[in-house]
Amino acid sequence: MQIQFITGDATDPVGAGNKIIAHVCNDIGAWGAGFVLAISKRWPKPQAEYLKLSRPIVLGTLALIQTEPHIWVANMIAQRGIRPLAGVPPIRYNALKQCLGILAREAENLRATIHMPRIGCGLAGGKWERVEPLIREVILNSEVFVYDLPH
Length: 151
Fold this sequence. Notes:
Distance between the termini: 27 Å
Strand content: 25-35%
Helix content: 25-40%
CATH superfamily: Leucine Aminopeptidase, subunit E, domain 1
CATH topology: Leucine Aminopeptidase, subunit E, domain 1
CATH class: Alpha Beta
Number of domains: 1
Radius of gyration: 14 Å
Structural class: alpha/beta
Mean pLDDT: 97
CATH architecture: 3-Layer(aba) Sandwich
């Protein structure tokens, strides 16, 4: 599996065919900062589905929401709360790995490419040096595109 790095907007994924846009959500039901704002600007359904989940939301789970005929959004629950606790950032790498496993299966079933920002590395406080190896380890049969916004 190869990761392709692209300068652009992950909510406007490149290529033809089915696409899944993956991102990290927290387990407390807070939606309103970071990449989710870009998602909500394009599609209301991912936020609405996330806000319906019972609390606390289970870490390591994923909800796949179809937003257009060939586009799905994967809300991956891999962040504990929204603030660091005792110096530990909100990202939970084990939960992210679980979510990536579910994402890989969903992408294979849909024959979809996977698109994402640098998941878990913004407000969740994760390090790309830890996230990228998880993606490479778990997603074996789907093309992955990682987006960086232009400077």
